[in-house]
UniProtKB/TrEMBL annotation:
Subcellular location as annotated: Cytoplasm
Active site per the UniProt annotation: 95 (proton donor/acceptor), 157 (schiff-base intermediate with acetaldehyde), 186 (proton donor/acceptor)
Gene Ontology BP, a term: deoxyribonucleotide catabolic process
Protein name in UniProt: Deoxyribose-phosphate aldolase
UniProt cross-references to InterPro entries, sorted A to Z: Aldolase_TIM, DeoC, DeoC/FbaB/LacD_aldolase, DeoC_typeI
GO cellular component: cytoplasm
Predominant subcellular localization, coarse grouping: cytoplasm
Biochemical pathway: Carbohydrate degradation; 2-deoxy-D-ribose 1-phosphate degradation; D-glyceraldehyde 3-phosphate and acetaldehyde from 2-deoxy-alpha-D-ribose 1-phosphate: step 2/2
Family: Belongs to the DeoC/FbaB aldolase family. DeoC type 1 subfamily.
Task performed by this protein: Catalyzes a reversible aldol reaction between acetaldehyde and D-glyceraldehyde 3-phosphate to generate 2-deoxy-D-ribose 5-phosphate.
Primary gene name: deoC
Pfam families linked to this entry: DeoC
Length: 227
């Protein structure tokens, strides 16, 4: 892959704030930063979608809503309803957490139907499926990616950023190999500086979920913890 300058990474970035105590002022700042720096989107909890959509009205920045977040263990109908209402409120993409327990129990038909139910609710709105790779072995990661590829979701995504660890280059590469060229791969969780972001893209990521987008595109090193 040709070398990408830090600023060129802006359109890979979902500028993210998913903290449960995020204030309306912080969401407004997130939206302003995304607009100023040319990020692809902001990624927020579904309850923040109306406010974020209002902040970004008329701007070329999408609002991404997380659904069934961060555990993925809720009822499929609840996830689908949340996706539907988030889209009605202005979400242009949905990031859902798959049912991790079902996947680990080998309940693959149920995992398939859970994702399919949310995808149906999304209609033409792109759906990303969060695997929570740190809780899975490689065979489970592959199976999840195969199900997502079969359903033709828009992206598979590594992590919520709220579990034991986040994205790794090896997981991104494994996911890319499994889904092929037709499905996006989003690396999220722990992508906090330019070298890490570039490594994820070189491994096959086509989107980055991070709260450190400004540091990444300025070429700065990571400072402290964060999504």
């Amino acid at each position: 892959m040709a070398h990408l300058e830090p600023q060129a990474l802006a359109q890979f970035i979902d500028h993210t704030l998913l903290a449960p105590d995020a204030s309306r002022e912080q969401i407004a700042t997130l939206c302003r930063e995304a607009q100023e720096h040319g990020f692809y989107s902001v990624c927020v909890n579904s309850g923040q979608v109306p406010h974020a959509s209002q902040c970004l009205a008329g701007q070329n920045v999408k609002v991404v809503a997380v659904v069934g977040f961060p555990l993925g263990a809720g009822l499929s109908d609840s996830k689908a309803f949340e996706a539907e209402r988030a889209i009605a409120a202005g979400a242009g993409e949905i990031d859902m957490v798959l049912n991790i327990g079902w996947l680990k129990d080998g309940m693959f038909d149920q995992v398939h139907s859970d994702i399919a139910r949310v995808k149906q609710a999304c209609g033409s709105v792109p759906l990303k499926v969060i695997l929570e790779t740190c809780l899975l072995n490689d065979a489970e990661k592959v199976k999840a990616c195969e199900i997502c590829r079969e359903l033709n979701v828009a992206f598979v995504k590594t992590s919520t950023g709220f579990s034991r660890s986040g994205a790794t280059v090896d997981d991104v590469a494994l996911m890319r190999r499994t889904v092929g060229a037709g499905v996006g791969v989003k690396a999220s969780g722990g992508v906090r500086d330019y070298p890490t972001a570039l490594a994820m893209i070189e491994a096959g990521a086509t989107r980055l979920g991070t709260s450190s987008g400004i540091a990444i595109i300025s070429g700065a090193q990571a400072a402290g913890d964060g999504y």
